[in-house]
Amino acid sequence: HDDTYLGGDRRLYMTATPRIYNEDTKSEARNADALLASMDDEATYGPEFHRLGFGKAVEQGLLTDYRVLILTVDEGRVAKTLQQGLAGGGSELRLDDAAKIIGCWNAMAKRTGTFADGSGFAEGEAPMKRAVAFARSIADSTAIAKRFTEVVDAYDDADDEVLRCEVEHVDGTFNTLRRNKLLDWLKQDPGPANARILSNARCLSEGVDVPSLDAVLFLHPRNSVVDVVQSVGRVMRLAPGKNYGYIILPVAIPAGMAPEKALADNQRFKTVWQVLQALRAHDDRFNATVNQIELNKNKPDNKIGIGSIGPGDESFGDRDGSSTADSAEAAKAKEAQSAKHIQEALFSVTDWREAIYARIVDKVGQRQYWEDWARDIAQIADRHVTRIKAALTLPEKRSAFEEFLGELRVNINPGVNESDAIDMLAQHIVTKPVFDALFKDYGFAEHNPVSKAMQRMLDILDDQGLDAESKKLEEFYQSVRVRAEGIDNHEGRQRVIVELYDKFFKTALPKTADALGIVYTPVEVVDFIIRSTEQALNKHFGRSLSDEGVQIIDPFVGTGTFPVRLLQSGFIKPEDLLRKYASELHANEIVLLAYYIAAVNIEAAFHELAGGDYRPFEGIVLTDTFQLAEGIAKLDGMDVLEGNSERAKRQQKQNITVVIGNPPYSKGQENQNDNNQNLKYEALDGRIKQTYAALSTATNKNSLYDSYIRAIRWASDRLKDEGVIAYVSNGGYIDGNTADGLRKSLVDEFDEIYCYNLRGNQRTAGELSRKEGGKIFDSGSRNTVAILVLIKGGNGGDANLGCALHYRDIGNYLSRQEKLRILGSQSLHTVDWQRLTPNTNGDWINQRDERFAKFQAIGDKAAKGKNMPIFDLYSPGLQTNRDAWVYNYSQERLAENVKSMIGFYNEQVVGFTQHCRSAGIVAPKAADAESYINRDPRRISWSSSLILKLAQRKRIEYDAERLTVGAYRPFSRQAVYFDQDLNHRPGRLPQIFPTMKHDNLGFYTTGTGSDEPFSVLMFDAVPDLHAVGTKSVGPHFPRYSYQRLGDGDGLFAVAEYVRIDNVNDGALRDYQAHYNNPGITKDAIFYYVYGLLHSPAYRERFAADLKKSLPRIPKVADFSGFAEAGRKLADLHVGYERVEPYKGVVETVAGDASTTPLNELYRVGKMKFARTKGVVDRSTILYNHRVTLSNIPEDAYRYQLGARAAIEWIIDRYQVKTDKDSGIVNDPNDWSDDARYVVDLIKRVVTVSLETMKIVDTLPDLDVLD
After folding, report:
1. What does the pLDDT read at residue 116?
2. Quick one: pLDDT at residue 114?
3. 850 CB burial (10 A radius; 0-12, 13-18, 19+)
4. 536 domain-assigned
């Protein structure tokens, strides 16, 4: 390779077995400073020039195809028949090897019979004649050669007339003459009913040319994948009359062991998995085989055969007829002659076959395949996007495209931009061949109006080389066809499509998935909803889903699961199927790829049920359901998308009876850098404002415009007078404080409501998270999920009681699989519903305590007169919208990050100013700035407030005075750049901490609507939005506020400030009068409130109220007891860095600590709890690879903030983190010059936790005074 040894301009390497090392080996080589020549290293070997895989070589007639035969042999059978031979003194042959010999002999004799599906060996087929056997060692190979014939002779089913084997051994110690003589012996024809086997350990892996070789026998695992592939290559040479080369894999199984148990023994099946993995790596057809094993009803017989030799069973043919009804009938005749043997078998051949197939999918299946495909498609689509953009520079192409874009905006949404339209065209190009592969019997692309419109647009652009680009990708499309070919049922195809859809969006289009809230609905949920909808129609309207006039729509159809399962449910009578499909079933989808998948899925499901010629599904529309509801007047006059717009107009005229589906869950754009905002809908949002928002008591009502809430409002209006809505969606409306208006509206608008809470809220942690159980949508959503069935009209409800509200909580600690299993066995009639009566607050569950509203408000921005709250001012925590840039443990690094971002922002100001000048924009708006900005996340983090400043062309100056200390999370202080320009929403915090020189104290509580338990924590620094450790936005109640006197030039201008007591004067008079104690001070009230908020009795009794509103403070009998406790707690929590480290914690250091500098010895990377036999041991923290802290008392974990214990917050926050978007590193080792800061902090927080709980445990009783 080195030019100093052999000069050259180009080098071409050729190999049949590329040596590629895994990442572990590469890492070891780097650590050892060793040179590793891995053939996937382009820097060394260059790019791949040409690849000829097994599959292609077979297609081109260069190799013979292969088949794998996996045989399980019961050792009990072998032991019984060979007992005497194996018991002989000095026997060097083990029982499992003897069993494998029996398996090899049966396979070579082709004593498999014919499987029920027609595969296997035909009766009377000639046995194999030549084989090479691979053993573990020379000793094993020698023993096998010596004893093979003896074992076969002793085997009581062996028949010399069937096959007699001659076996010889060869190894690397043989000279060339002797080795070649044995190879010549192997090549010779052994004669009828005879076979020759040459056994070896490794010397025949390569360099052996015996084209007539029938089989390779793997009796033990090989040393490497390369060994396996080279060994397999021996049997794939072409020879006259040779159809297949066989790879025989015998597995010895202990007597009577069940298949599942045997398969759990990885060592026993190691050879099988090793060979199959090697074949998968080198044969591009193998993935299709594994796919078919997983997805097909009839298992593939073209690559893998499976058999079992058990007690009393003299062959391993599958006589159970497990494939189809027809083949089962055909197998019965063959079954009779072996019935007596089968009856003796503990586990049938089918048991083994199905168990091994399942494990093959698990062990050998390429689980990341569809993600890989998504990455391929994303790259390919990008290439098409580039070419389309080039085509659009030509005027004649541009005008056609503008018409196309205009019609997309009318049909889908006015928010569709040029980039969206180009992306849709690129998606069409790359996905059409995939649909052709999966649904080759349907003319989808030729009949679907959207597909035809896309193709017409592409035809106009075709002379720009788009077609040529596609031809370059033909090999890719062929690989997709190969991988997908042979799937024999619609369910299998649907599973493949759903996986593609799910994985594609997460990998290729993550922003699309985020904006639209794309998740796939499990069929158990879909089927439950369909069953429940049918029963609701029966009960309340005396009708059925099958009835004429029952118009059904899935407004967010995704991949079409709901309509497909509806067609397959059996609720649609055969005589009604065509009518329902053609005119009474409707679906909308906004994403092109999902729309295509849904359309072809529904069409395929109908065709499978109805048969006959292909019939397109005309009920599906490419549109935004919410936008379609805004009006259909603009749908006239379409040209490019005329067919789609006609479908939309037809749908809008229907009187919908049933709405089913899974609405998008999106809550809105979280990252301004994504340029991925959610859309607004004037009419629909107006209806929400009139109903849900009008009846809500919440202050911030933004969440009422989340997509799933919009979907409920849309469906409620679409039904008009009567019908059924059945959704599975985010379940935040069940108990959320903002959704009180929605809950009131639903009860007002509907006659009967069924709400099934499936839980799964993983926006929690610890024990609370475990109680919530598995996520129904798996990784698709971390929210609570619920099924909501709404019935309007009919005979539902009660004339006197109004709406009948039924509720069911699925239960605690259930896994996702358990939840789906429960749903699979239930329907509307069989669920044990709880009848609820909502209260005046609109609470369905966790209803508020009426006494709570009578207590004094802790804070109330609208309070006046005698109802004044305890605190005059409060504020949410600091919302920066760019934490990585304005928080850091290192003040120096923070300053560098802020200066860098400000510098880039100011460059954008200059560039935008020039842009406006050249574009003639006199008064730029935020939208102009947004269309201009550079969204590179490594240079800047945008927010709507910063974009507005850019629109105003405002420069920002760095000011070191704005660097201060922030309370980021519990017991985790960081440096923060506290600034009105770089902090998105500072709230009223500038009045609480006007400069870094102004001290203050305040406590932060859990916000309303929180999923986590109520918490409170005292700080003396600027609190973050989530400072108390909960995801909700809590209020901060300070001891003082500050008012600036005089003029300045900014928020932090040098000026005089006056300190204002934040405890209301009226509250002080009230407390003094109530307790008849003029000595009560504002300090005492402040600490009284803090102590009371820690009371377990208060938190438990008013838990529902604390979730839905700010705390309200009762007056209790022992005022001074709570005030004193509150002061002690405040001292502990604010002074946590000064308390004594807990002496009971044992600190252990591995090695000689004296030889390592303290800053290295105590450097923290990522701490974790120890584990004992897989169980977390919270008494021990592995601080780093050398330091361990043990003997941490379990009692310390009782002190919880949010869903974590205080100690767990230290483990979570004090780790080195690199922000994914910006690349900024935040290292807790930079916070303090004291090398022991973090290790001692853990011990201090143990002290804080124990002392806190001592105080909490001794708090006075909650004796509320009238």
Report:
1. 44
2. 52
3. exposed
4. no
Co-location of 908 and 860 in the same domain:
no
Q: What are phi and psi of 111, to 5 degrees?
A: -90, 50
C-alpha to C-alpha distance for 1028 and 1018, rounded to whole angstroms: 9
- Enter the DSSP assignment of 160: T
Which residues on neighbouring strands pair with residue 1059, listed in sequence order? 1042
Give how far the C-alpha of residue 737 lies from the chain's centroid of Cα atoms, to the nearest Å: 28
Report helix angle 592-610 to 449-461, nearest 10: 130
Question: What sign does the CA torsion over 176, 179, 181, 183 have?
Answer: negative
Collapse the DSSP code of 1219 into the 3-class scheme (helix H, G, I; strand E, B; otherwise coil) and give the result: coil
**Residue 994 and residue 900 share a domain:** no
Least confident range from 59-63, 80-84, 1005-1009: namely 80-84
Q: Which two tokens stand for residue 294?
A: 């997983």
Residues 1245 and 1099 in one domain: no
Note whether residue 1105 is domain-resident: yes
Other Cβ atoms within 10 Å of 402 Cβ, number: 13
Question: Helix or strand or coil: residue 593?
Answer: helix
Tell me which residue of 245, 166, 172 sits closest to 211, measured CA to CA.
245
The rounded Cα 210 to chain-centroid distance in angstroms is: 50
- Distance linking the first and last C-alpha atoms of the chain: 92
Sign of CA dihedral 578, 582, 585, 590: positive
Backbone torsion region of residue 1202, taken as left when φ is above 0, otherwise alpha when ψ lies between -120 and 50, otherwise beta: left
In the structure, what pLDDT confidence band is assigned to residue 497 with cuts at 50, 70 and 90? low
How many Cα atoms within 13 Å fall on the side-chain side of residue 767? 7
Contact call for residues 276 and 363 (beta carbons, < 8 A): yes
Q: Token digits for 400?
A: 């056609």
Distance from CA of residue 399 to its chain's centroid? 42
Which residue carries 């300190």 as its tokens? 1059
Instruction: Decide: 155 and 81 in contact? Cβ < 8 Å.
Output: yes
Q: How far is residue 742's CA from residue 705's CA, in Å, rounded to a whole number? A: 11
Question: Cα(1241)–Cα(1201) distance, rounded to whole angstroms?
Answer: 17
Query: Which of the pair, 326 or 976, is modelled with greater confidence?
Result: 976
Phi, psi values for residue 742, rounded to 5°: -65, -45
Where on the phi/psi map is residue 1122: left (φ > 0), alpha (ψ -120 to 50), or beta? alpha
**At a CB cut-off of 8 Å and minimum separation 6, what does 999 contact?**
1020
**Of 29, 209, 230, residue with least CA distance to 134:** 230
pLDDT digits 0-9 by tens, 555-614 = 999 889 999 999 999 999 999 999 999 999 999 998 887 888 889 889 989 988 998 888
Q: Which residue has the tokens 């004193």?
A: 1124
* Strands 1112-1113 and 856-857, sheet pairing: antiparallel
Asked if residue 169 lies in contact with residue 200, where contact means CB atoms within 8 angstroms, the answer is yes
Q: Collect all residues with Cβ–Cβ distance below 8 Å to 949 and sequence separation of at least 6.
A: 956, 981
In a domain, 148, yes or no: yes
> Range of 1219's domain?
1146-1257
Q: Regarding beta strands 752-757 and 804-809, do their DSSP bridges make them parallel or antiparallel, or are they unpaired? A: parallel
Q: Is there a domain that residue 780 lies in?
A: no
- Tally the domains of the chain: 4
3-state secondary structure 752-793: EEEEEECCCCCCCCHHHHHHHCCCCCHHHCCCCEEEEEEEEC
> For the chain, what is the radius of gyration of the CA atoms?
37
Domain ends where: 942, 959, 976?
A: 959
- Match 């916000």 to its residue by tokens: 1007
> Tokens 């607050």 sit at which residue?
841
Distance CA 699, CA 848 (A): 18
What's the CA gap between 763 and 1030, in Å, rounded? 9
Going by DSSP bridges, is the β-strand pair 1187-1190/244-253 parallel, antiparallel, or unpaired? unpaired
Give the Cα separation of 442 and 446 in Å (integer).
9
Amino acid, single-letter form, for residue 1172: T
Give the span between the Cα atoms of 239 and 621, in whole angstroms.
Answer: 57
